[in-house]
Amino acid sequence: MRNITKRFPGVVALDRVNLEVYPGTIHALLGENGAGKSTLVKILYGIYTPDEGVIILNGRRVIISSPIDAINYGIVMVSQSPQLIDRLTIAENIILGLKKYGYYAPVKLVEREISKLAEEFGVKIDPSTDTWKLSYTQKQMVEFIRAMLLGVKILLIDEALTYLPIEERRRFYKFIKGFAERGGTVLLITHKIPEAMEAADKITVLRRGRVVKTVEKTEVTIDDIRRMMFGERSKEITYERLPPGAPDGELLLVENLWVEGDFGGYAVQGVSLKVRRGEVFAIAGVAGNGQKELLQAIMGLRPIRKGKVFFEGEDITHRSTYYLRLKGVGYIPDLPAKYGVSIENTIIENIAVIPVYARGFIDWDKIRSLALKLIREYDIKTPSPEAPVKYLSGGNIMKVLVSRELNTATKLLVAYNPTRALDEATAIRVRRIIKNKVINDNIGALIASEDLDEIFQIADTIAVMNSGRIVGVFPAEKAKREEIEHLMVM
Ligand SMILES: Nc1ncnc2c1ncn2[C@@H]1O[C@H](COP(=O)(O)OP(=O)(O)OP(=O)(O)O)[C@@H](O)[C@H]1O
Ligand SMILES: [Mg+2]
């Protein structure tokens, strides 16, 4: 990619960017939220056309004006959200994209190839399974398998691994390493710098739309990369434990809770816990062990079959989400761009929708100044508070959600992976904001996270959830990392 420039109203997303990637390499593309990473790979995938600059493939200039063009050149993108049709089987989904077999795709043959590739991931999968039955991880695996069957030569991964549990991520990294060893090219976007350093051969750092530098992995340290990414802000990056709160008094009480999962059976099996004022109560666990369902049930988003929930002493077991929101409960759900914000709407409208503001008359002036305040405090990169959320970068969408919910949480914050999709410096900043708020405003926080660095940095109490149950609760200062990890996977 040579001299690529891309402007959007009010921002130069890419400014004369040069990027060269080679066969047989994993090339990481790193940079803070809004740096231009997604825009660059979207240009390569034919979603955006550059205002200036050219793309040269194997020595020849090419014009890529749609993903179909890109796929014909062997360029395939896998993003955060799976692009599969739920009502079709895995094989049908994959056949949809395979022109090489013509209209009469030999289903059996494709099914065999799918199974073979799944084995490379180290899992068994039946290609005739309906896609809606698959977990997020399995859907992402199908996306990778599809890319392989499409004959991918350059695989673009835009945070496609971000939402996967750690163990699964390792599996995916092994798979893409195998692909690179066979001559494939991977362009990898992630905010997990240590993972990028581990997986990549080369690294290009983008900052404010410009290339800071392209380096060989072996010539730099993690700290060098952080300095290139964040400049002065890199000094803020620390994984030390934040000052502890002084928990006092019971705020949220969960008693013997039973909650169903999406596919029958109980995802939450008799969970009891207590969150105090002034406390960050963190739940560690591998994704898919009931954390999501537990938080949804507390928030009134999933029916409770058995057990009770009390908030400030009041039984709220079957209360609505609306009711809890009015009481001052903030909520950060999983899949933020799907369940947390309405991406077609503006930042202001996304704030106005919160029950405390949306009762009766909406005071737009007040909401506008709140939007401006949050944009300033969280450094949300946007041309204006009137911008539709879909025009923001992934991390900045997350900042809109997190800032709004922390503002709503005048008593309790319930959050699922609150710093996912945020760059490292911003993630740590958000943890500080949460912690300060818990201490200064004496609120409680119930946070489920798969990121142990996050848990150890922020928690006052650490619980481990495994197979729908709480299998251990520790005061954070006494918790041992190995023990927590063991409980998570045993
Ligand atoms: N369709 C669009 N319309 C207007 N502005 C856009 C659009 N897409 C991206 N931008 C802007 O371009 C800049 C770069 O965004 P991009 O999504 O490439 O960042 P990113 O590096 O992927 O960040 P993140 O880590 O948060 O995903 C941002 O300022 C963003 O607001
Ligand atoms: Mg992005």
Outline type? globular
Residue stretches low in confidence (pLDDT < 50, at least 5 long) are none
What is the topology, as strand order, of the major beta sheet? 6-7-8-3-9-10
Number of helices: 18
Helix content: 25-40%
Structural class from helices and strands? alpha/beta
**Ligand set:** adenosine-5'-triphosphate, magnesium ion
Walkthrough of the structure:
- Helix content is 35%, strand content 25%.
- With 490 residues, the protein is an alpha/beta fold.
- The protein has two domains: 2-234, P-loop containing nucleotide triphosphate hydrolases (Rossmann fold); 248-489, Rossmann fold.
- Strands 6-7-8-3-9-10 form a six-stranded mixed β-sheet, sandwiched between helices.
- Strand 11 and strand 12 (266-277) form a beta hairpin.
- Helix 3 (90-96) crosses helix 4 and helix 4 packs across helix 5.
- The N and C termini lie far apart (47 Å).
- The relative contact order is 0.12.
- The model has no long low-confidence stretch (mean pLDDT 94).
- Residues 8, 11, 13, 31, 33-39, 381, 391-396 line the site of adenosine-5'-triphosphate (ATP).
